[in-house]
Amino acid sequence: MDKNRTASFREHFKNAEIITAEDIRAFLNKDKDIRKEIHYLKKQGVITSVKRGIYQLSEKKEFQPVPDARIKKINRLLKPNFPEVSHCIWSTEWLHPFMNLQPFRFFYILETEKDTVEPVFYLLKDNQINAFIQPDKDFTDKYIINSNKPVIVKPLISRSPSRTQEGIVMAAIEKILVDIYCEPDIFYAFQGKELRNIFNNAFRQYHINYSRLLNYYKRRKKDNSMVEYLLKNIENIPKNLLK
To answer: Following DSSP, what letter does each residue of 38-69 receive, concatenated?
Structure first.
């Protein structure tokens, strides 16, 4: 597919809410395998995958916040001490641009394999990092919110959506959204109207993979409440992507 054909593709689908593989096949007028063409369109940034076999034109950015000094320090500690252990880290500061009322402070979430939660916690403490193990709401309110760059250490959920940048495994936007929805005790400052603000701004500004979002949610919860929340609170969300 050349540049002219790519431009024609964008023009053809400019008003499409979603684009299916069959839509692409019809546009290309091909009966054979179109995986190569789809790969090309994704590589060129023309389309992004939002669900298995479903795409949208790439008009939104990828969520790629840069790791700060604290995240880099934690990663430097983990690599030599737990080289074979999976972990994932992110900062609640990443949510501040999505909010109307931004908290004065922020904290970090470090998830690691269940058997290593305590050893990782003590490693951080031994290196003068203010760490806590999966606190409840009262503890978070009394001690964590007012601490200086605290780190909450908790078990890593298998197949959590993540991305790697500068050799650091960090939470993907899909994981962050699900976690703040599922854990109001830890993320109570991000609930209510601010939760709606976060979700709406994230969906409006960034590419969200619906399959990753919903599959991860299903590993965390067995109900359908998040789908109901999205349908009720998120503006212009394609309903057929939530099935």
So the answer is: HHHHHHTTSEEEEETTEEEES-SB---PPP-H
Report yes or no on whether pTM surpasses 0.70.
Answer: yes
Phi-psi label, residue 115: left if phi above 0, alpha if psi -120 to 50, beta otherwise: alpha
Helix 117-126, helix 69-81: angle, nearest 10: 120
- Other Cβ atoms less than 10 A from the Cβ of 111: the count is 25
Q: How is 145-180 classified by DSSP, letter by letter? A: TTSSS-EEEEEPPTT--EEEETTEEEE-HHHHHHHH
Dig out the tokens for 179 from the structure.
């976690």
Query: Could you count the other beta carbons within 10 Å of the beta carbon of residue 31?
Result: 7
H helices of 66-112, where? 69-81
CA distances in angstroms from 16 to 61, 121, 141, 163, 222, listed in the order given: 18, 48, 45, 28, 32
Give the model confidence (pLDDT) of 191-204 as tens digits: 999 999 999 999 99
Cα separation of 97 and 119, whole Å? 33
Q: How remote is the C-alpha of 97 from its chain's centroid?
A: 15
CB atoms near residue 126 (< 10 Å): 10
Buried b (16+ CB within 10 A) or exposed e, 13-30: beeeebbeeeebbebeee
Q: Would you list the domain boundaries of the chain? A: 3-57, 69-242
* Cβ atoms of residues 100 and 119 within 8 Å: no
**∠ CA(124), CA(81), CA(120), 5° rounding?**
35
> What count of other Cβ atoms lies within 10 Å of the Cβ of residue 197?
17
The pLDDT of residue 2: 67
pLDDT at 215 exceeding the cut of 90: yes
